[in-house]
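Subject: for your reference before the review

Hello V.,

The reviewers asked for a structural picture of the protein, and I figured it would be easier to keep everything in one thread rather than splitting it across files. Below is the amino acid sequence we used in the manuscript, unchanged from the supplementary table.
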Amino acid sequence: MKKRLTLKNSAIFFVFLLLLIQSFRFAKTAEAFDPAKDFAAITTANAEVAHTLKIACYDCHSNQPIYPWYSNIAPVSWWMQNHIDEGRQHLNFSEWGTYSEKRKEHKLEECIEMVEEGEMPMASYTWMHKEANLSDAQKLQLIEYFKAVKGNTPVAKHQ
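And here is what came back from the structure prediction:
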């Protein structure tokens, strides 16, 4: 009998704790942005490349994240916001136009490396966003696009 009460009390405590942490909300950070500074606009990405960037990169690496319904549930919301904040800190496609040429080149090298090595998009992201699971062709297209932008080669042939 004591074991049952302990299990019941534990369950009640867990539910109470889960409800309590819902009161600690983060500010969703979809910030205003200047489309003229956006990577896809500046580099004149075609519709297909721009779409791939939006579904695989922009939720964490831009000022334009799309917050799904579960982003309102703590502690998942905290975890998501942490990913977004860290992603923007490393690379923010919405702020591309403010980067120095040296920083742009470095970020493009990192983009190429991360996609080639399968580190981006992150598995924890693609698990919940199936559309961000890039095919080999999409990965190759992004890599070639990043290389073309980095090398200042005519991007049109990679579109």
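For the response letter, the relevant points are probably these. Residues 153-159 have pLDDT under 50 and may be disordered. Helices lie at 2-21, 39-42, 47-56, 76-90, 101-116, 123-126, 136-150.

Happy to draft the paragraph if you're swamped.

O.
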